Amino acid sequence: MLIQTWTDVLMSSLQNLWVQTLSFLPSLIGALLVFIIGLAVASGLASLVEKLIIAIKLDNFLKKVGLEEYTKRANLELNSGYLFGEIVYWFLVLVFFSAAADILKFYVLSNFVKDILTYLPNLVVAILVMVVALIVANLMQKIVKASVMSAKVGGEGFLSSAAWWVIVTFGLLIALNQLGVAVAIINTVITGLIAMFALAGGLAFGLGGKDFAAHLLQKMKDGIEK
């Protein structure tokens, strides 16, 4: 009698498992189809984006503004088409993966992927901010160096390097702020840097800038008289 009871329990459990497997199978097939289609769509759009970036010759522009130097330092090849293509690819892969997880009712996993997708645009914006900061910094470095050399007041190397570091530092702080990394601390640092540069400039002009200002005024006067 006891053996019969255990047999019935075992058979009932196996039947329930079979029924649950059969009911889960359509969801599994649907999720796999969605994910496979997503891989195909992601691959196609990534390839299209890469070709568009190559067509507009973005790499040539980035090389002209001096970004290739930094990629070489990191032992990387400047290939913006590949970079943007990969960003599009993995973004779409995560989107379809999240959809597949929803079909399977894996809601914890789906919500985790959605959090990543929500954060990903911040990462892209932070990268673009740093790229723009480097472009502006390189341009400003050349402008400051040329201006100081034309004025023949000396210190063009130091002043141009200082301008470069100031712009890159602000770009880095803005990028970190976009990523949400210690926002309060970064805001305090930015405020402190602005105050520091203002104080340093005031002290430099107040203590030692009189002669420099007189020198500039004299040059302006000589130029006008000529």
Strand-and-helix sequence, N→C? Answer: HHHHHHH
Structural Rg: 30 Å
Instruction: Indicate the structural class.
Output: mainly alpha
- Rounded mean pLDDT is 75
Produce a short descriptive summary.
The protein has helices spanning 2-55, 58-64, 68-73, 80-103, 107-151, 156-178, 183-225. The protein has 226 residues and is mainly alpha-helical.
If you had to describe this structure to a student in words, what would you say it looks like?
With 226 residues, the chain is mostly helical. It has a domain at 21-105. The protein has helices spanning 2-55, 58-64, 68-73, 80-103, 107-151, 156-178, 183-225. Helix 4 packs antiparallel against helix 5 and helix 5 packs antiparallel against helix 6 (156-178). The mean pLDDT is 75.
Helix and strand arrangement:
Elements: H1 2-55, H2 58-64, H3 68-73, H4 80-103, H5 107-151, H6 156-178, H7 183-225
